[in-house]
Design a protein that fits this description.
binds 2-succinylbenzoate; globular; four-stranded antiparallel beta sheet; single chain; 371 residues; seven-stranded parallel beta sheet; binds magnesium ion
Length: 371
């Protein structure tokens, strides 16, 4: 296939509720949607998960615009590609900027699947017909509000609860939740809010029978996490620290993590995400799919990826209506009895809703290959 045209749209959408973590609160979300077109007018869609500000990783919407406009689109336009894996090789001359790369690469994956008349899940080697889903709940104003939120999501069928913690809002929060929900699969995500100085406090969390604790220490650390893991019974799951398969290999070698949170954007695309999945599966290391408060296109890519067999824990990809008044795909992502049905139609299996996309678009750029 030849990539003849790339369209980049910048969207602005407001979430139904603010989402708070140890590093701040967000409600308005700006992000990029990428549309790639082949020589026959077939389209593939991708979504950048970079936020407006660099609090999760260093990338932002604006750095993604820069990388996509000035480096990635020029590398891709007019190129003949037989498999999407070639895109990550093409982009390997650019260091990091993984979310920018993934936004474009995932669009090529969708296009590839559509051209071959298969679902994206099938193209990736996915086997599950439905995926189990969990939910990630932001910091709340009070414990009682958090308990009510958890109860509401359990009633909706979500199969695993993840809560955010930060220094000062940790041991008592988890004690309260465990008392209210003794048997619920529960985990905590610190988004790098602690250091090894907090080791005694982190050891107290072993009392709450958590599935895992996600990224307690530095966003770029794998050494201190290894020290901490030796002191903890609870498995550590790395999120922010994992940017590549190489990072996974090193973290497992050091014993810094027992579970991997795979985010397509953070690792630079679906090809690398699949390589991480395969590597972990061979070694008996479970993985699960994280979320970045995606709109429908990013959500669809997560669903396809999660259909691979070693995604053994429910992920953070909740239903569209949890985040958005109106999503940008039809149908929207629906959770029923705690599962999402993996679409079987071609590509991502959801139709981009052009009316909704146009409504939310605040910037648009088109690039064509010169004939
Ligand atoms: O650490 O997993 C995280 C949201 C934004 C940035 C980082 C994280 C999260 C979440 C929410 O936990 C996941 C989601 O619901 O999409
Ligand atoms: Mg996380």
């Amino acid at each position: 296939m030849r990539i003849a045209e790339v369209t980049v749209r910048r969207l602005k959408m407001r979430m139904k509720e603010p989402f708070s973590t140890s590093f701040g609160t967000m409600q308005d979300k700006q992000f990029l949607v990428i549309e790639v077109q082949d020589e026959n007018g077939n389209c593939g869609w991708g979504e950048s998960v970079a936020f407006e500000a660099p609090w999760y990783t260093e990338e932002t919407v604006d750095t993604n615009v820069h990388m996509i406009h000035d480096f990635l689109v020029p590398l891709l336009l007019g190129k003949d590609i037989t498999h999407p894996d070639e895109v990550s090789i093409l982009f390997s001359s650019i260091r990091k900027n993984n979310m920018a790369k993934a936004a474009v690469e995932t669009a090529v994956w969708d296009l590839f699947a559509k051209r071959n008349r298969m679902s994206l899940a099938e193209a990736l080697g996915g086997t599950r017909k439905e995926i189990e889903v969990g939910i990630s709940i932001g910091l709340q104003a009070s414990f009682s509000e958090l308990v009510a939120k958890v109860q509401g999501y359990l009633d909706e069928g979500y199969r695993r609860i993840k809560v955010k913690i930060k220094p000062g809002v940790d041991v008592e929060l988890l004690r309260t939740l465990r008392a209210a929900f003794p048997d619920v699969p529960l985990m905590a995500d610190a988004n790098s809010a602690y250091s090894l100085d907090d080791i005694e406090l982190l050891k107290e969390l072993d009392a709450f029978n958590l599935l895992m604790i996600e990224q307690p220490l530095g966003h770029d650390d794998i050494v201190d996490h290894a020290v901490l893991q030796r002191e903890l019974k609870t498995p550590i799951c790395l999120d922010e620290s994992i940017l590549s398969l190489n990072d996974v290999r090193k973290a497992l070698t050091l014993g810094s993590t027992k579970v991997i949170n795979v985010k397509i954007g953070r690792v630079g695309g679906l090809s690398e995400a699949k390589r991480i999945h395969d590597y972990c599966m061979e070694r008996g290391v479970p993985v699960w799919c994280g979320g970045m408060l995606e709109a429908g296109i990013g959500r669809a890519h997560n669903i396809a990826l999660t259909s691979l067999p070693n995604f053994v824990y429910p992920g953070d990809t909740a239903g569209s209506s949890r985040y958005w008044e109106k999503d940008i795909i039809t149908p929207e992502v629906v959770v029923q009895d705690g599962v999402i049905a993996v679409p079987r139609s071609n590509g991502i299996g959801y139709e981009p809703d052009m009316h909704a996309i146009d409504n939310f678009t605040i910037g648009k750029w088109c690039f064509s290959a010169v004939e």
